[in-house]
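Following up on my earlier thread - several people asked me to post the actual chain instead of describing it. Fair enough. Here it is, all 501 residues.
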Amino acid sequence: MNKQPELVKLDGDHLRIEEVVSIARRFTTIELTLESIEKVRHSRSMVEKMVSENRVVYGITTGFGKFSDVMVQGEDVSRLQENLIMSHACGMGDPYPTDVVRAMMALRINALAKGYSGIREETLMHLVEMCNRGVHPVIPQQGSLGASGDLAPLAHMVLVMLGKGQATVNDKLLTGSEALREVGLSPIRLQAKEGLALINGTQAMTAQLCLALYDARIALESAEVIASMTIEALRGIPKAFDPQLHLVRPHPGQQESAKRLLQHLAGSQRTTEQGELRVQDPYSLRCIPQVHGATRDTLEYVWTTVSRECNSVTDNPVLFTETGDVISGGNFHGQPMAFAADFLAIAIAELANISERRTERLVNPQLSGLPGFLTENGGLHSGFMITQYVAASIVSENKVLCHPASVDSIPSSANQEDHVSMGTTSARKLRTVVANTTKVLAIEYLAAAQAIDFGTGELGAGTSRAYQALRSVISRLHDDREMHPDLTKAEELVQQGTLLW
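Reply from S.P.:
Thanks for posting it. Predicted structure:
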């Protein structure tokens, strides 16, 4: 993983996924570039000119959705924006965790910084200061259709800017006005176009995708170290990872995974040659490059797609200062993110699927040649018996979650908005799949280390580091003990990227 930045300068064009994660989880400070501020000022001047001329422009001098044909003028132009936020802040369910909220704020700031939205500089800076000072709006997770933007989630974010709703500051739950006062900010009054500019975007789904992608990459790289440990524990055959084999089926991910496996196993005395113990390994060992590699290729595709979305204009209407055009379109539609999230969920779930099969091979004496369930005194002790049950349960849960949300659509706004992406649901499911996969990998990690303890010989370059990292916090299992704490520690090691090198 790349080194995390100490400051992220947003200009709307160059925000990286790693920077989103840093802002979200490490509270990295945000700044706007001078160029982006100038663009914001120019687009704002367009809005003010249209209002002064009483032009008919969607969301500025008209209502929203089905009410797009209803004109709004005079003082009501400002009231319209505040009404929009209050009426749309109707999400339900448990609130998003702080990292998702912060990622959402950072992504919306970056989109507005591109200068196509018509927001005032002071309004945008208010959101920047909220993020930098740790004001985190309470945003319910349910309620977005993933088209017309993530309206309900983003409306809850904006409520706090108005001194309404709820927010946390230093994990303390406060009203919106109390939260602002706690950090020295005051509520703002929205002007023409600003409410729409703040909530018309894909930032709830994209925020979750950024975090899930980052965690998925750690899971993938960790899976290959852990799989290498299992190969050693079962005295597998690394010849299946020979570059010649993967050159003739030139999928980049497959080639990279095979290369990584060989690097992790370099110098190992625990592996065997073809024909030494067996002619070839079972698929869960032999086909790791093909399975993990397909996941790797999927992750790279999704990473590119989400990186593009991080620096996109997802408003409606969009203001073009150079031509003077105001164009109503559908850049808020979350279909690209919905497909990406569903695709990645399937790909990451397969890491768990094949991992559970390797765990079964480790604990099953008929398949491993090791003591049953990796315990020295089977019968009196159950050892790792039930850990495989847990992995199987979680893998089954992932299979249910991998049904794509993006194949569904329900019309809304009196059928004016008659096709939606459900992308935010896709992204929420994805985060659960990634977390579940990390748990399954942790189970294999613990079982592989236990299995290694029954053998002799030097471990490989990568597997020895991974083994030592685990054994530094979890001792070998001799007698039965409560396994939950061990599994949780192993999961934390995987989550933190401890196995990466």
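The chain has a mean pLDDT of 95. That should answer part of your original question.
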